[in-house]
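## Example pair
The file below holds two records. Each record gives the amino-acid sequence first, followed by its structure token line.
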Amino acid sequence: MTDSPPPRPVAVAWTGTLPWAVPVAIAGLGLSSDSPAWRAAAAAGMLLAAAAAAVWQVFGRYRRDRELAELAEHLRRGTSSPLPLLPPHEPEPDLRDAVRSVARRARRTDATVVELAEDRDRLFAALEGMSEGVLAVDGAERLLLVNRSATALLRLPLGELKGRRVWEVVRRSAVTDACEAVLGGAGRYEAEFEVGSATLALRADPLPGIASAKGAAGAVLQVRDVTDLRRLESMRRDFVSNVSHELKTPIAAISALAETLLDGPLEGPPIARRFLKDIENHADRLHDLVVDVIRLARVESGRDVFDVRRVPVGPAVEEALRGLRAAAVKAGVQLSSVPPPEAAHVRADADALITILDNLLTNALRHTPAGGRATVEWFPDQVDDRPVIRLRVIDTGEGIPPEHLNRVFQRFHRVDPARSREKGGTGLGLAIVKQMVAVFDGAVAVESEPGRGATFTVTLPAA
């Protein structure tokens, strides 16, 4: 019996498709293609290959269906998923391209959503930072938006206001009337109303959008605090009225005196000289008024350029006293100064400091009877740990009633208008003092009692 040769090793070649591996493996066994064993092995291999291919196809279908289901779920939620897509060797390129297209669209949608969210956040931040109040309502008068300033200006309740009816939250008839007018198709609506001591200006406009048959789709309301603006307008009207009155009085007097002189003959040169002296006095009053008006306007508008530097107080006081010495002698009022032991300096403009002292001393002379005194004193002090110099002008005049103390620095305010005009005051001196002191980061105050004189205190930064 001849020994059979040892079996050769089986060589299995994988070409990427399972059925081709079977014939190659069988050929490696050395069997004849006509033998029953070869046919049985081939049949078994083909069955095994078919089973493996079926399993592979079922697995691929399952994986593809799972990915498609995941994609559909993310599309339903409006989010994107890092889909692995289909591997390059999948036999369905149309499906693969569709999945990739949907994934790209999902990524673009995500980017758009993020951009819109950032734009919304920026818009809300801008609205919250506005000093004006902003409210928006829909066609049913439900609040869509209320910013922080609107809550403060209208004194609205805290908490979530969005979705509530405007008339439930805002208890101001002007606001509800504005909503009704705009939503009813009336167009822009404007009004002013009071909230406590504040004056608010309201403007309502139709909200952009598709209008309904009954009117606008909504309304946007803007609320501004115009208290200071209205106060300034009132001050301007008063200022113009007072200037007109102050100009009218001396002009009328000059005109009457001139007509009298022209109509002559007069009884003699002394009377004519007296009339001419009155004309000169009224002309001087007009000149002083115009100068004070111009000076006040320049200080308030910031057009005056001050040379702010280290200024010694003593020489400025002496200069102001020297300029008023003759007027004090004529009025019978004694002028004096009380300097500190050491020289004091302030940060201010030298000419402006002299003007401040001149106006305060002139005011003291006008309101101090003959035999009285007007004294200037100054000394170092501290305000909130900051070194300052306090200047005081003290007189022994008739004093100021309590109800006038808070108004003496207003333009054209006079405690006794007839007497002030008789003495030649313009009513602007103390207002100029207040404005100039403010330029140098200082303050001015007054203390007085009727019949016991007045004390004006100017506080300026020490230098």
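Second record, same layout:
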Amino acid sequence: SADDLFFMANFDPLTQLANRAMFHNHFKKALSNASRYGTKLALLFIDLDKFKQVNDTLGHDAGDEVLKQSAQRLANPIRGTDMVARLAGDEFVVLLENIDSLRHAEVIARRIQQDFQREFFVNGQAASIGTSIGISTYPHDGLDADTLLKNADIAMYHAKSHGRNSFHFYDKAMNNEVERRNLLEQELRQAVVRQQIIVYYQPKVDTFTFEVRGFEALVRWQHPDLGLISPAEFIPIAEDAGIIKDIGLFVFTTACEQLHAWHKKGFDQLHMAINVSAREFQLSDYPIVIAHLLAELEVDPKFIELELTESIVMENPQKTLMMLNVIKKLNLSLAIDDFGTGYSSLSYLTRLPLDILKVDKAFVRELSTNKNAAAVAAAIVSMAHDLNLKVVAEGVETQQQLEFFMVRECELIQGFYFSKPLPSHEAEKVLEPQWRKQFEKMASTPKFIRH
């Protein structure tokens, strides 16, 4: 019938929301009215955080149900004169017409995010979904539909890359950020082949003897024009672009080969810690890939530690537990990095096959100025020891910070107090006996001798 044809042409059959075509028609009319009457409007570009994880873990039917429930939640806070539309996949837009100020758009964005704080329930299973929201306004951020949509999209990516589950208004400075990001993404695809990805090594030092017990392998990008680029900038780009696996495999292989070389030189008890990114770990074949690599590399797995952040572990606890148990069977050690900054359940922590806990540098940095940070750091060390875990304090830069952890018998120290991350030829120098001698006076001080 004509009604059916109209519905198919203008609405999304899954969510019953306006589709892309209907939205564009409505948006152009809204802009025409705003221009004629001198009014303002706001466009919210919304992307669902962690939606892919729902599809991967609960299945596509569950994903469809989450999209339907999301559509209902998006419609809750808006007026009858406003529009919600589904553009594609997990991307939605909200059009707010005739608004008095930016405050109105901000209130709606906050309400949407609060509404998405509640868990979704699909077939008895709970799923947590957040929203990254970008906002552009007429006439401030553009005069036509394409410009406003593009700028809201840019603002949304800014929100997503700055911690997710947040909203940002468009700012012209974001264009420069997007241009740099696009440039880095293009060049990152060739960086491994061009040997621009390099590995630095930061020593982990025995708290009492000041001997180097191992290193953490830290990836860097030596760009020919832009210089040394921090992993904090390029790893999220690699994850989004789908090239994190190649970089991760390169770092794992390089670090293991370097460890083997040091073992052959007589430093045969050294350990190597290697970071695993969130997107890498989410790949279901990760343990299999690591098993194959270990079979090819001449290094005993007991000297390799995999470091995962607390947020990775808690993203999907059941799947994580299963994967960690498989990895442990390969005889690797497991460490939780940045501990204390996430939202992990302490009861869940006891079920994980962990060996090492790393106290996050955020607590270490504030030891002398924030009593609460000191209390948390002390509690983490004590709790880890009660769970028979070793503790690494990272980000130690001062004598006072070092003494704090010595008194609490934290096993290993990592930070600029001893050494910054170094290329391999410089890292090897810290293994020589004379490097340790500069700290020996501190090691022999009576109050810091282990009892």
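Notes on the second record: The domain at 2-171 is CATH 3.30.70.270 (Alpha-Beta Plaits). Residues 77 and 107 are 9 Å apart (CA to CA).
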